[in-house]
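Q: Could you fold this chain for me?
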Amino acid sequence: MGANSDFWRDQTVWPRDTAEWVFLARATDLLGRRLFGDQWTREECFAELMRPIDATTDARTLNNIIAKHLPQFGRKEFHGSMASPPIVPIGQRDTAPGLPPPRFQFTGEEQRCAAEFVRAQNAKALEGIERFKAAQEALVDYAVGGEIVTSFRTNGEYKVIPSAWWNTEKLNYRFDRCKIDPDAPFEAKGQSWIFVSKAGLEGSRKSVVSGPGKGGGRPPEYNWEEARLYCLSVVAEHGRPGRGNRRLPTQADLISLVVEHFANKDIHPAPATVKAKVSKWLSGEA
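A: Sure. Below is the predicted structure, expressed as structure tokens.
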């Protein structure tokens, strides 16, 4: 599920909450804090990947990355045109003389540090994107299961959204700007803001295990330590999820194994909660 980074970053464009209803974006943020505790920074909501540094990276882009993020090299950002000034025919006066664009040259150390910086930033962004997806999926799970009531606002009134409207994979637009078209709920359009019932959010605490020191909450309802050890044993045997791992090509495959591990004992925690836990375990948290 995607998200419009500018929209999620600028809360001034969000509609206000009421005593009964919480705007979808704020509700997602709240669930993220409950799922991940102090690991949740809110930057997950607008995390973006940078293009890797390679032979195709243009010189101005590389210069500006170094200037902005690697001040030890003393570069300055350049946002002017890289086009050469127009050629003035012989005999005509140059009415708008211009300077030629700078010619950037880089040391091997600059290129290496820039590439390492982008790789580190992208790894951090990917972790944030996964946490953001988990928060969205948790909200969808609750909405589909009827544990949370959602609504859309039209002409100042709140109309309840049927739970079946959430039972779809076409949710990118819905989380992109937190809007829906009640006449075509499964299409990527609409201007009606989406809200979540405040009472439902409070009730959802029962199935979300809060992080350490976050908002009290109830003790864990499942044997997460046993599940953590099982998860790490799978990783030890088959390697971390990722491309090239035939057994665990994606993190979702590992999550499915943990869910199945619980199901074999007739225990059924919310998949979104399991996903949040697995993300923590893979990052080294207990």
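A (continued): Confidence is low (pLDDT under 50) at residues 209-220.
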